[in-house]
């Protein structure tokens, strides 16, 4: 009897593989852009589009040339048309004490312990930490950055964010 129950459970689990996940979001349009700081491209920055209305947020990561493509669900799939407030961040942490594996991070979170943090001002390193921001602080918060984007269903949707 137990064998039949285990077999039934295994067949049920196997039939669910691939179920439940969305493969795309209707209405997404391609969105790309470039980020510069002091007229130089920023590599490895995270660009986040925060919707003004209740639509879905999107984000992207800049390449060597400061170029990015937005992602809502699948890599490079774009964003929904609408108005967005934008935040841009790039933080590096060189302190070995802050380097944790995915397993260690999961253990910290499940144990109620927050991961190591301690941001500093742009261009400065924390005395004990090694965290360094590569963009001014105001761009980290979409409400304070002053950056916006209007994504349209029929537009080019290629944005230039020149940080100062």
Describe this structure in words.
Strands 1, 2, 5 and 10 form a 4-stranded mixed sheet that branches. Strands 4-3-6-9 form a 4-stranded antiparallel sheet, with no helix packed on it. A two-stranded antiparallel sheet has the order 7-8. The chain has 164 residues and is α+β, with helices and mostly antiparallel strands. The protein is 15% helix and 28% strand. The chain has helices at 2-16, 102-110; strands at 32-37, 40-41, 46-51, 58-61, 67-69, 82-89, 91-93, 131-133, 147-151, 158-163. 20% of the residues are buried. The chain has 2 domains: 26-90 and 137-164, Immunoglobulin-like, CATH 2.60.40.10; 91-133, no CATH class. Mean pLDDT is 79; it is low at 1-20 and 118-128.
Topology:
Elements: H1 2-16, E1 32-37, E2 40-41, E3 46-51, E4 58-61, E5 67-69, E6 82-89, E7 91-93, H2 102-110, E8 131-133, E9 147-151, E10 158-163
Parallel strand pairs: 1-10
Antiparallel strand pairs: 1-2, 1-5, 3-4, 3-6, 6-9, 7-8
General form: globular
CATH class of the largest domain: Mainly Beta
- CATH superfamily of the largest domain, by name, is Immunoglobulins
Q: Runs with pLDDT <50, length 5+?
A: 1-20, 118-128
Number of strands: 10
CATH architecture descriptor text of the largest domain = Sandwich
- Taken as a percent bin, the fraction of beta residues is 25-35%
Our count of domains comes out at 2
Compute the gyration radius: what is it?
Answer: 21 Å
Order of helices and strands: HEEEEEEEHEEE
Structural class: alpha+beta
CATH topology name of the largest domain, in short, is Immunoglobulin-like
| Largest β-sheet summary | 4 strands, mixed
* Count of alpha/pi helices: 2
Distance between the termini: 70 Å
Mean pLDDT: 79
Question: Percent of residues in helical segments?
Answer: 10-25%
């Amino acid at each position: 009897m137990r064998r039949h129950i285990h077999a039934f459970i295994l067949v049920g689990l196997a039939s669910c593989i691939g179920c439940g996940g969305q493969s795309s979001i209707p209405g997404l349009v391609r969105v790309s852009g470039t980020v510069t700081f002091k007229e130089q491209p920023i590599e490895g920055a995270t660009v986040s589009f925060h919707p003004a209305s209740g639509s879905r947020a999107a984000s992207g990561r800049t390449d060597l040339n400061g170029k990015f493509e937005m992602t809502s669900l699948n890599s490079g799939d774009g964003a929904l048309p609408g108005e967005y407030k934008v935040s841009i961040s790039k933080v590096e942490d060189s302190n070995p004490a802050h380097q944790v594996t995915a397993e260690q991070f999961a253990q910290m979170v499940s144990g109620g312990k927050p991961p190591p943090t301690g941001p500093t001002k742009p261009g400065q390193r924390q005395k004990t930490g090694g965290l360094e921001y590569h963009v001014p602080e105001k761009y980290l918060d979409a409400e304070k950055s002053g950056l916006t984007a209007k994504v349209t269903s029929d537009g080019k949707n290629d944005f230039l964010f020149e940080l100062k």
